[in-house]
User: Which sequence fits this backbone?
DNA sequence: ATGGTTGCAAACTTTTTGCACTTCG
DNA sequence: CGAAGTGCAAAAAGTTTGCAACCAT
């Protein structure tokens, strides 16, 4: 199940959103970025190379939508900064390990168990609807 | 073990940092905020009421240090925003559940097991040095 | 046609920086 | 005294907004 621009555009349609030129351009670009991460500024720069007429706001707006569609992941780093990433596992629940030395991002399937989530609900008297989990450390290359 | 301004200032000293007027003011203020959360702007406003001479940059710099000292927690919300919080559990490892309706923050002790962390290390070929875990959902008051 | 979408530019929010002055130790 | 810390103001990042024109459907 490789991700294609069509899949992304289909997701827009199913949300009742239109398929437009800028969105098409973005979809094509994003599938090529799989496995790498970027800031919105960097994404905009990439977009400009394909269509210099696209505005920055359009990119910000598209990123917001793609996050809601769960297609684009926001990756948090230990220093509090964040980058975006169109993951191999796009659409699948997963988390990220980020190297505090080189910034490498690794997709990891590890997650909390149902029991652990139930425990949170109980002790916090809280309905858990979602969570975010990030691992920080050092990748194989940056190990000492 | 109640937290006191002295404890905070002591932590500064042990890091080789000086105890200054602004830091004293901040320490006193922070122990009174335990259990509530704030933005840096809000913190600065509170600081100004005690000493109108303190600059914004000083507050930003102090917040950065207090985070490194693990005394001040940065709480992330589901919408991507964040606030700071001087927790009851200051210094103890814990996480947060935030209500996406009213913004309430609940401190929770639930965490990953050693096995789960070991699994991440193994599958990602990655030395895990830290992690961040946030729960999103609805608190008792905002439940439908 | 018609309402969602876009580009632009300006406004905004949040955080950082350089530097002369101050203050702790 | 000397280095760390501070206040200020300006600048840098990062993001949002209003609106007239545009274009999918």
Assistant:
């Amino acid at each position: 199940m490789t991700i294609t621009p069509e899949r992304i555009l289909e997701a827009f349609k199913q949300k009742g959103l239109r398929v437009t030129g800028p969105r098409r351009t973005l979809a094509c670009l994003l599938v090529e970025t799989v496995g790498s991460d970027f800031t919105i500024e960097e994404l905009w720069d990439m977009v400009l190379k394909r269509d210099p007429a696209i505005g920055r706001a359009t990119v910000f707006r598209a990123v917001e939508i793609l996050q809601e569609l769960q297609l684009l992941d926001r990756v948090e780093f230990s220093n509090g900064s964040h980058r975006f990433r169109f993951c191999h596992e796009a659409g699948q629940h997963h988390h990220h390990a980020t190297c505090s030395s080189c910034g490498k991002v690794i997709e990891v399937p590890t997650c909390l168990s149902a029991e652990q989530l139930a425990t949170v609900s109980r002790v916090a008297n809280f309905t858990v609807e979602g969570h975010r989990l990030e691992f920080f450390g050092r990748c194989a290359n940056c190990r000492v």
Q: What stands out?
A: The mean pLDDT of chain B is 95. Chain B is about 40% helix and 25% strand. The two ends of chain B are 37 Å apart (CA to CA).
